[in-house]
Amino acid sequence: ALALVDQLRSEEPVDLLCSVFEVTRSCYYAYLRKRRSPDAERVILRSRVNELFTQSRSAAGSRSIMLMM
Asked: Which are the contacts of 28, defined by CB distance < 8 A and separation ≥ 6?
């Protein structure tokens, strides 16, 4: 329903679409916020964590990885 509201929002008002599909506007706007792409810093950190985990032969936990960083 949220994807449909997003598709049709250029043709009809969002509040009307939300009421038709029985979705709250706050839920729709939360969906839009979550849909954004992850920020670059988070992607870089995730990549580094995966790299360190692989180097430890999949043995390091969160505390060990934090110490390695």
From this structure: 2, 5, 6, 14, 18
Which residues, in sequence order, are CB contacts of 23 under 8 Å at separation 6+? 1, 2, 5
User: Domain segments of the chain: what residues?
Assistant: 2-35, 38-69
Helices of type H across 1-69: 2-8, 14-20, 25-35, 40-55, 62-68
Question: How far is CA 11 from each of CA 6, 7, 17, 18, 45, rounded to the nearest angstrom?
Answer: 10, 9, 10, 13, 40
User: pLDDT, tens digit, for every residue of 18-52?
Assistant: 999 999 999 999 999 887 777 888 889 999 999 99
